[in-house]
Specification:
The protein is α+β, with helices and mostly antiparallel strands. The protein has one domain: Alpha-Beta Plaits. The chain contains 4 helices and 6 strands, in the order αβαββαββαβ. The strands form 2 sheets. It has a 4-stranded mixed β-sheet, covered by helices on one side. β2 and β3 form a beta hairpin.
């Protein structure tokens, strides 16, 4: 590369806007159909387990506390999820959705990648009954 060509490129780039975005400081809204973290509504769920059966990465586990009273907890492994929304499409009762707000999911440790969805009382009952160490809970999806 010749010095003249390089000097011309340097001078032109001094007066142009940068091509990169200042991401952490200037954030843009996610598109409306963006598939972020899974959201679950326990009031609509009947415990049919279709979401678990249709998940190609086994990221969803439906944990039954009391089927007669419709008390369920969902263990969602974000690190396994491929965000394909297969569980959302196949849910008969429309109790699942992919959030376009919760998409910044990076973490330094593995603990935040297991989320428990359900009523707070059901989650506590599950932890007590099965002696599972709680990592992160999300009540009411």
């Amino acid at each position: 590369m010749r010095i003249g060509t390089m000097l011309r490129d340097v001078l032109e780039s001094l007066f142009k806007r940068p091509a990169t975005e200042r991401y952490p400081y200037e954030r843009r809204e996610a598109p409306p159909r963006y598939r972020g973290q899974l959201q679950w509504n326990p009031e609509k769920c009947t415990g049919c387990s279709l979401c678990c059966k249709d998940c190609p990465s086994n990221a969803i586990e439906l944990l039954t506390i009391d089927k007669a009273k419709k008390q369920f907890v969902i263990r969602y492994h974000i690190d396994r999820c491929t965000f394909c929304a297969q569980c959302v499409q196949n849910c008969r009762f429309k109790c699942m959705d992919m959030s376009n707000q919760d998409w910044e999911l990076a973490a330094l440790s593995k603990e935040p990648f297991t989320v428990y969805y359900g009523d707070e009382a059901n989650i506590q009952t599950f932890f007590e009954r099965f002696a599972v160490k709680p990592t992160e809970t999300a009540s009411e999806g």
